[in-house]
């Protein structure tokens, strides 16, 4: 049991260290040596890609994959930074109802929202509240 907790503690500690894109002082975005936008965005949810054509031509450090704020500091204009975020939106959200409140028994709404749209980036999270009405 003690070994289990030591392994669990190490896992939690490593997850904490890597949640912001740094692991033991290394920038995971730049350490992945991504050569495309797709590769870059798959490295970590906080990595961004600079699509600006002339970016990095006058520098020795020319990785297009980095944190958004680092790319801007190195001369990438904000409109050229690809950094999609996960999100959700409600598409259909009728209020919950109980048996007998609708015209027919099929008009009862027991789940809210009824329809959502998710846009998920690999490795990141999105929050979707869900309510159930149980009779």
Share of residues in helices: 25-40%
What's the main sheet like?
Answer: 3 strands, antiparallel
Mean pLDDT: 77
Quaternary assembly: single chain
Topology:
Elements: H1 2-18, E1 22-23, E2 26-27, H2 28-31, H3 37-43, E3 47-50, E4 65-67, H4 68-73, E5 81-82, E6 87-92, E7 111-112, E8 115-119, E9 131-132
Antiparallel strand pairs: 1-2, 3-4, 3-5, 6-8, 7-9
Can you describe what's shown?
By secondary structure, the chain is of the alpha+beta class. The chain folds into two domains: 2-82, ligand-binding face of the semaphorins, domain 2 (2-Layer Sandwich); 87-132, no CATH class. The protein contains four helices and nine strands, in the order αββααββαβββββ. The chain has a three-stranded antiparallel β-sheet. Strands 1-2 form a two-stranded antiparallel ribbon. 13% of the residues are buried. The model is unreliable at 1-19 (pLDDT under 50). One of its GO terms (cellular component) is integrin complex. InterPro entries: Integrin_beta_N (IPR033760), Integrin_bsu (IPR015812), PSI (IPR016201). It is a single-pass type I membrane protein. Keywords: Calcium, Cell adhesion, Cell membrane, Disulfide bond, EGF-like domain, Glycoprotein, Integrin, Magnesium, Membrane, Metal-binding, Repeat, Signal, Transmembrane, Transmembrane helix. GO terms for molecular function: integrin binding; metal ion binding.
Short summary of the structure?
This protein is α+β, with helices and mostly antiparallel strands. The protein contains four helices and nine strands, in the order H-E-E-H-H-E-E-H-E-E-E-E-E. Residues 28-77 form the PSI domain.
């Amino acid at each position: 049991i003690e070994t289990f907790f030591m392994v669990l503690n190490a896992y939690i500690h490593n997850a904490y260290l890597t949640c912001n894109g740094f692991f033991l002082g290394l920038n995971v975005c730049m350490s992945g040596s991504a050569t495309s936008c797709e590769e870059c965005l798959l490295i970590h949810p906080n990595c961004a890609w600079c699509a600006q054509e002339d970016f990095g031509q006058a520098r020795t450090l020319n990785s297009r994959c980095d944190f958004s704020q680092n790319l801007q500091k190195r001369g990438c204009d904000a409109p050229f930074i690809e950094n999609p975020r996960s999100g959700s939106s409600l598409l259909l959200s009728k209020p919950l109802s109980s048996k007998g409140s609708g015209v027919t028994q099929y008009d009862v709404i027991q789940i809210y929202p009824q329809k959502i749209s998710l846009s998920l980036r690999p490795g990141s999270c999105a929050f979707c509240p869900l309510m159930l009405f149980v009779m």
